[in-house]
Amino acid sequence: MAKNEKTSKKVGTTASKVLRDPKASKAAKSAAGSALTQRPDKKK
Questions:
Q1: Are 40 and 5 in contact (CB under 8 A)?
Q2: What is the pLDDT along the chain (44 residues), one digit of tens a residue?
Q3: In whole angstroms, what is the distance from residue 27 CA to residue 15 CA?
Q4: Cα-based distances in Å from 22 to 17, 18, 26, 38
Q5: What's the CA gap between 28 and 26, in Å, rounded?
Q6: Torsions phi, psi of 8, nearest 5?
């Protein structure tokens, strides 16, 4: 992956929902966590 590629807002939102779902599989949570680490930092 190139340095300038980021996960979209829609994917980030979905990944957040997966992480909060207690029924989500371990693999799904791992993939969601990976997607969120690629989101740009929030500006202060």
A1: no
A2: 556 667 888 988 999 999 999 999 999 999 999 888 887 777 77
A3: 12
A4: 10, 8, 10, 23
A5: 5
A6: -70, 165
Residues 6+ apart with CB under 8 A from 28: 18
pTM of the model: 0.70
CA contacts within 13 A on the Cβ side of 18: 19
The answer to whether the beta carbons of residues 44 and 10 sit under 8 Å apart is no
Residues 6+ apart with CB under 8 A from 32: 14, 15, 16, 18, 19, 24
